[in-house]
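can u do me a favor
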């Protein structure tokens, strides 16, 4: 049987995983086999630019933490798994998906987005969504178009009134 000290260390890791999972809006489990140290560092930098991060834990400890939280990610905990987390719903998925395009060794497995389970296909759908900044730009462009059309209409109306 494991010593008391080892059990305490494992429990502290489980508590850390639970804390990160509770605070995160998005959790993504991905396979990182075949990624070099420099590529892992590059991925970590890209994730941190979006206020996201990832950490590698033992699958058994992640399974215990997720079970304690009532989250079933057992199918994602086969083979080596890394745990990405963020407050942003889409940012870590987009970063991981983009990184996987240039590094085929990285494979997205499963995730939780705002409490809803998402398989690899659903994660791919989220990755295809425009970013928040792109959506705001599209909204602003639409609003400017409405204001422009209104100003043209008002100008034409004023010209029509001047002629009469």
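np, heres the sequence
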């Amino acid at each position: 049987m494991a010593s008391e000290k080892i059990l305490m260390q494992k429990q502290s890791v489980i508590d850390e995983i639970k804390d990160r999972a509770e605070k995160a809006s998005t959790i993504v489990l991905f396979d990182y086999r075949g990624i070099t140290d420099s590529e892992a560092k590059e991925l970590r930098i890209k994730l941190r630019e979006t206020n996201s991060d990832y950490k590698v834990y033992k699958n058994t400890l992640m399974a215990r933490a997720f079970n304690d939280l009532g989250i079933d990610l057992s199918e994602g905990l086969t083979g080596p798994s890394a745990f990405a987390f963020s407050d942003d719903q889409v940012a870590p998925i987009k970063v991981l998906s983009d990184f996987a395009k240039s590094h085929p060794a990285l494979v997205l497995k499963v995730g939780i987005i705002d409490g809803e389970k998402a398989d690899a296909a659903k994660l791919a759908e989220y990755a295809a969504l425009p970013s928040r900044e792109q959506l705001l730009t599209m909204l602003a462009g639409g609003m400017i178009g409405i204001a422009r059309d209104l100003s043209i209409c008002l100008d034409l109306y004023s010209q029509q009134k001047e002629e009469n």
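The first strand starts at residue 26 and ends at 31. hope that helps!!
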